[in-house]
Design goal:
Number of strands: 13
CATH class of the largest domain: Alpha Beta
Number of domains: 2
Strand order of the largest sheet: 2-8-7-6-5-3-4
Helix content: 25-40%
Radius of gyration: 21 Å
Shape: globular
CATH topology of the largest domain: Aspartate Aminotransferase, domain 2
Bound molecules: pyridoxal-5'-phosphate
Distance between the termini: 49 Å
Largest sheet: 7 strands, mixed
CATH superfamily of the largest domain: Type I PLP-dependent aspartate aminotransferase-like (Major domain)
Mean pLDDT: 93
Length: about 375
């Protein structure tokens, strides 16, 4: 009998992040330090815009590339905040940034094309490359998790089609310097490489301003969305800003894969762009500082904290991430294994996005559990 499940899924990673979420459900009274969303709620006026859209029957299909008013507002936002010149026609609204990744890949990658993927990285970038038949080329950024043109140059071949950049970064919390991004843009231009820039955490950059590489390199596909900036993870609305030929290809694909993104979410997103983003740099900095000071005794290296809301913690020698994650869950704290984001097993990722009280308790549990593991390890 033939396999019911397609072969393309054979080496698909089933998702260590999902497993951690399952663990969180199984064990009661957990403090969840794995969450990838801000503790705030969607702003009231944005919620109201969604409700009004339903009441006014804006509940039908929208154009495949998105509501014209929303695309217009996105183009204005990109010009004002990111220095990216675009028009509404260069924008496609997608059901979250995650869908945008697949659409971009299918639009630009041929079988055998190589795509440079700095590691560690948000997992869909790696897994979906394989779905597109292309070749993921991991680029290790250990030990400092900074990306440089020099590192990238070592991975470029005649098959290199694109490179993914994510700053502020999930999971490392790194934010790349403007100078380095300028060098990377120069390198990409020289080799005709497309840059895919994921800027979903742009408002969570604590110590230096966020810089959009799309402002200086026309071969950039900028990906962003409303999930983190407006605490709208469940609404599923993101967007792509790309050169005209790529946007056209993406729209063709989106027509058959998505047809159109939720109308209700798009009307709410229009209102979001009229509302200040929920980013509360000082509040998140405080949470970061609490996390760093609580954990500095037990972890040999604490990375991140420049941006996004994650710390990437090097485990003490002899501890392995999956085992640690399982043991921590029994001590009432959920974290993610580093190997969900890269090939290494000596890191874990925590999020400090949650509520301050829960965070404090979670950090104490984490610290005590790691100390206990160290006492008991041979
Ligand atoms: C780097 C990165 N990009 C994209 C996403 C997902 O964005 P969306 O909710 O718009 O699909 C996440 C979520 O954690 C992320 O960390």
């Amino acid at each position: 009998m033939q396999d019911r499940i397609a072969h393309r899924l054979h080496d698909f990673d089933s998702g260590k992040i999902r497993q951690a979420f399952e663990l969180a459900k199984e064990i009661p009274n957990q403090i969840d330090l794995s969450i990838g969303f801000p503790e705030e709620n969607t702003p009231e006026e944005v919620k109201q815009a969604g409700i009004t859209a339903i009441q006014q029957n804006h509940t039908t299909y929208l154009p495949t590339n998105g509501l014209a008013e929303l695309r217009q507002s996105i183009a204005q936002k990109l010009a004002a905040e990111n220095n990216i010149r675009s028009s509404a026609e260069d924008i496609t609204v997608t059901p979250g940034l995650t869908t945008a990744i697949l659409l971009c890949y299918l639009a630009i990658l041929n079988p055998g094309d190589e795509i440079i993927l700095p590691q560690p990285m948000f997992p869909p970038y790696y897994e979906l490359t394989k779905l597109a038949g292309a070749v993921p080329v991991p680029l290790e950024t250990f030990p400092d998790f900074q990306l440089s043109a020099e590192l990238i140059a070592r991975k470029i071949t005649e098959k290199t089609k694109a490179i993914v950049i994510n700053s502020p970064n999930n999971p490392t919390g790194a934010v790349y310097d403007e100078d380095e991004l300028r060098k990377i843009a120069g390198l990409a231009k020289q080799h005709g490489i497309i840059i895919i820039s994921d800027e979903i955490y742009e408002y969570f950059s604590f110590d230096k301003p966020h810089f959009s590489i799309g402002s200086i390199y026309e071969g950039t596909i900028t990906l962003n969305g409303f999930s983190k900036a407006y605490a709208m993870t469940g609404w599923r609305v993101g967007y792509i800003c790309a050169p005209p030929d790529i946007v056209e290809a993406i729209n063709q694909l989106q027509q058959y894969i998505v047809f159109s993104t939720s109308s209700i979410a798009q009307y709410a997103a229009v209102k979001a762009l009229e509302t200040p983003p929920i980013y509360l740099t000082d509040k998140y900095k405080q949470k970061r500082d609490l996390a760093v000071s609580t954990l500095s005794d037990v972890f040999p290296e604490i990375h991140g904290g420049q941006g996004a809301f994650y710390l990437f913690l090097k485990l003490p020698d002899g501890l392995e991430d999956i085992k640690v994650v399982n043991q921590l869950s029994h001590s009432g704290v959920i974290v993610l294994p580093g190997s969900a984001f890269c090939g290494r097993t000596d890191y874990i990722r925590i999020s400090f996005a949650g509520d301050m009280d829960a965070l404090r308790t979670g950090l104490e549990r984490l610290k005590e559990s790691i100390a206990a593991l160290l006492r008991n390890s041979p």
